[in-house]
Amino acid sequence: MYKTIAPLVLASQSPRRRELLGRMGIEFSLASADIDEFCRPDEEASDFVCRMAEEKALAVAGEFPGSWILAADTIVVLQGEVLGKPEDRSAAVKMLSKIAGNRHQVLTAFTLYHAATESLITRLDSSRVKIAALSAKQISAYIDTGEPLDKAGSYAVQGLGGAFVEAIEGSPTNVIGLPLPLVINELLLNKIITLIVSPGD
Amino acid sequence: MYKTIAPLVLASQSPRRRELLGRMGIEFSLASADIDEFCRPDEEASDFVCRMAEEKALAVAGEFPGSWILAADTIVVLQGEVLGKPEDRSAAVKMLSKIAGNRHQVLTAFTLYHAATESLITRLDSSRVKIAALSAKQISAYIDTGEPLDKAGSYAVQGLGGAFVEAIEGSPTNVIGLPLPLVINELLLNKIITLIVSPGD
């Protein structure tokens, strides 16, 4: 449906982001941005996630001066508290116990950066997610699968965690890690991709 | 995370439903239910979708008397009108033009049927979906991909259509075609699956 017309680099190790963007038929190269992901004291969750997306984009920009860099960051926020990736099993148990039976917010920020023209675009999307009430046994069985351990908030909506996601309010791809309607829109506006139109259309 | 403890048959040709259930680690056999999918005059959309799920389950039950049959049906409803699968390109253009820029309802009903014990359980879930405003070119480019042609409402939330889904209110797996939280709950309640619990838990 889309054709890539300017070099694009996805600066993300997340297989979910790679899959979401690839599913759209968009061609891109890959880079890994290693940055420190720590929230500053008094930093708002929305400022933090935008800063993370920008830092990831800037971290790899030197290697690709003529390309557009796309980077993103996703965080889970429950009652003002940012829930990152769990450090270990006990942190995952604690996080899942907190989000079970409650609604939390998922924030994803993405940055498009083009070093040669000094273009920097950062956008933020927010969704709310209702997780089912979970027994200690369910939490334990879920952690045994290994899925929670590298996920913000300790669950994956597109994986086994999908069984616990009772409802979303907002963009479902934002919850996975890349809000496609906003991303596609910015890629089109900045002439990084174009729509494939057949001659008869 | 789950172990199948009673024979289960998924009566569905939908690759999305097969993928959703399979992703949960649940084992099942496959069957194809061929039924007439026509809404009766004055039949409510919610009655129609429940009847379809039940008819699909009953259609294959004779072949699997000792198994649980799981069948489902999904419909898209816009302002009281049921939008099925488009018959051809021009029907897809018409449907996509209608849903673009609007919110519609997605109803999925599923039936669990066990012939030997005459157990019949039917449940219904409903979500609302907001589709982005689309230009004629976008609609045309999307139909060119072939994706809309076998989908209720002419789009797939888990495919290229994901670029147009601005927001969901409700269960995201319901929109794909099988509301996992409800389905898993019924499979557990009826002892068709069980949670895998490790000795230490």
Describe, in plain words, how this protein is organized in 3D.
The mean pLDDT of chain A is 95. In chain A, 30% of the residues lie in helices and 29% in strands. By secondary structure, chain A is an alpha+beta fold. Chain A has a single domain (2-195), classed as Alpha-Beta Complex (Maf protein). The two termini of chain A are 13 Å apart. In chain A, helix 3 (89-99) packs across helix 4 (136-144). Chain A has helices at residues 15-23, 45-61, 89-99, 136-144, 172-176, 180-189, and strands at 2-4, 8-11, 29-31, 68-78, 81-83, 103-114, 119-131, 165-170, 193-195. Strand 8 of chain A pairs antiparallel with strand 8 of chain B, so a sheet runs across the interface.
CATH architecture level-2 label of chain A: Alpha-Beta Complex
Number of strands of chain A: 9
Overall tally of structural domains of chain A: 1
Average predicted confidence as pLDDT of chain A: 95
Low-confidence stretches of chain A: none
Q: What order do the helices and strands of chain A follow?
A: EEHEHEEHEEHEHHE
The biggest beta sheet of chain A reads: 7 strands, mixed
Return the structural class of chain A.
alpha+beta
Strand content range of chain A? 25-35%
| Shape, principal axes of CA atoms of chain A | globular
Largest interface pair: A-B, 39 and 39 residues
CATH topology of chain A: Maf protein
CATH class category name of chain A:
Alpha Beta
Oligomer: homodimer
- Cα(first) to Cα(last) distance of chain A is 13 Å
Helix content of chain A: 25-40%
* SS field, number of helical segments of chain A: 6
Radius of gyration of chain A: 18 Å
